[in-house]
Amino acid sequence: MNLIVSDLAPHIALLAQGALLTVEVCVLALAGAVVVGAAIAMMRASGSRLLRGIATVYVDIFRNIPFLVQLFFFYYGLPELGIYVDAFATGVLALSIAGGAFASDVIRSGILAIDPGIVEAAQVYGLSRRTTFLKIVMPIALRLSVRPLGSVLINLILTSSILSTITLNELTGSAKIVASQTFRPFEVYAVLLLAYASLTYLLSIAIARFHRRLNRGVLEAV
């Protein structure tokens, strides 16, 4: 089949709007995932057996339940308890919580990669354990985790296509609308394939370069 540009051109604005919505959802979800992941990573690194246990259970649960099931629970299940959240907020919430389970492993790995000598030096200067962790360990761990966190972002972008199942017209949802209006599913979804491939490829290159620039000189120090 030939791609009929004249048939798709009137719908480019809708697809662009869907792509923008995908970016908005995923950027907010990444921020949420980093916050959740950092909290879980700190709990797993704490001396409290209870906190470590809670964090471990959290990671095991949200890494082993299909995201679609989690999404439907938040969107269709919570209203049964009187909690109503719109599709956009539900998408951000679900992606943040699920992404946080993966981000916690990334951040924890960054913490473990830090030279213990840095922590010992901070203690020599009289810094408390908490101050050392929040002011020194976490910033370095996050810098070291930029690239793998970028992989989490890419995974969020790919996973966000499932949000079309709760009526959120992000990129995939917009493509479904265009396909139903133009009766050209092959061409529309071919464009969708190229859009996701291009977006994630360019993003991976940008993340790799940002990681190298941000950690220039830091990698040798840890």
UniProtKB/TrEMBL annotation:
Q: Which GO terms describe its molecular function?
A: transmembrane transporter activity
Spans through the membrane? 12-41, 53-75, 81-103, 148-168, 188-208
Task: List where in the cell it is found.
Answer: Cell inner membrane; Cell membrane
Per the record, its GO cellular-component terms are: ATP-binding cassette (ABC) transporter complex
* Biological process according to GO: amino acid transport
Q: Which InterPro entries match?
A: AA_ABC_transptr_permease_3TM, ArtM/GltK/GlnP/TcyL/YhdX-like, MetI-like, MetI-like_sf
Q: Which domain of life is it from?
A: Bacteria
Mode of membrane association: Multi-pass membrane protein
Q: What UniProt keywords apply to this chain's record, in alphabetical order?
A: Amino-acid transport, Cell membrane, Membrane, Transmembrane, Transmembrane helix, Transport
Give every ABC transmembrane type-1 domain span.
19-204
Family (UniProt): Belongs to the binding-protein-dependent transport system permease family. HisMQ subfamily.
Briefly, what is this protein's role?
A: Part of the binding-protein-dependent transport system for glutamine; probably responsible for the translocation of the substrate across the membrane.
| Protein name per its UniProtKB record | Amino acid ABC transporter permease
- Provenance organism: Pararhizobium mangrovi
